Amino acid sequence: MDDSLFYKYFSNTATEAERVAVHKWATSSADHMRMFCREHNIYNAIILSSTRHSAHAECTSYHFRYHYRRQLLRIACVVLLLLTAGLGTFYGLFANRIVPVYSMTVPAGNSNNLLLPDGTKVWLNAGATIKYPASFIGLKRTIDIEGEAYLEVTSQRRPFIVRTPGGQVRVMGTKFYVTSTPTENFMVSLIEGSVKLEAGDKSVTLKPGYRAQFAQGEFKQSVIRSFETELWKDGIYYFEDTSFRDLMAGFEKCFGVNIDIDNSVETAQHYTGKFYRYNGVQHALKVLQYDFDFDYSWDKDRNTILITSKRKS
């Protein structure tokens, strides 16, 4: 795959055919997806050097000459109204059938971000999946997300809807974190703007600086004291009062490795801290060895780390 085609895809300047080609190539194998993520990280490093992102739009104005007859204008208006109504009905009924839908899953050990057709920016944590249309047509903008994500939604008159396994978020233009998987509670942390959360027959409107979690059939709101649990967006894995076994499960997701723990290892001890993904899993394990009594060996061919009890001297 040509690198220049990647960058056209990341900058949202690729043609429809090019977008389809890149998506098919990236999702055809795990190696291709890893290469896609690597190129995306390189692209992100380039654009993050600038604090401003410009959006270009073409504006076309139509000028009617004075000598057009008034009757012709009346006829044109009627025709335009009929066409608009017909197209609106057509898109409302068949939009999902005529617009391609893309799907992307971020491999373990990676995070990724992309620009949606309307300019909305999405950051995805490892293991997250997003489904979105090639273009938003109709009266609303709808995407599907499973896992952890951060969104900066462009403001439009059309609502933006995020569907998740645990519920949905309805916004107009805002910044928020969302977490939802089949095994995790539906949770949203709002940075700015306003969102309406829906799960089953329950709904709640969230204000900036608040977090809402749907558990046991109810929404529970709380003031956001810190965003440490959302530091994955910056490549940081944060954990608080976490057992050794749960911590290793988090390492598998953060660093993209398999970790097996021998039954002889004591796993009841809890730990609080943070690690940078770019420092690697071996750095994290060596730091943990100051507090946990264990040894480890890494089979790089199988990408598997075996945790064992520390050898007695």
Task: Report on the architecture of this protein.
This protein is α+β, with helices and mostly antiparallel strands and 313 residues long. The protein has four domains: 1-50, no CATH class; 67-98; 99-233, Sandwich (Jelly Rolls), CATH 2.60.120; 235-309, Phage tail protein beta-alpha-beta fold, CATH 3.55.50.30. Helix content is 27%, strand content 34%. The chain contains six helices and 18 strands. The protein has helices spanning 3-10, 16-26, 30-47, 70-98, 244-255, 281-288, and strands spanning 101-105, 112-115, 121-124, 129-133, 141-152, 160-163, 168-171, 175-181, 184-192, 195-199, 202-206, 210-215, 218-223, 236-243, 258-261, 270-276, 294-299, 304-309. The strands form three sheets. Strands 1, 2, 3, 4, 5, 6, 7, 8, 9, 10, 11, 12 and 13 form a 13-stranded mixed β-sheet that branches. Helix 1 (3-10) crosses helix 3. It starts with a helix and ends with a strand. The relative contact order is 0.07. Mean pLDDT is 79; it is low at 48-73 and 77-96.
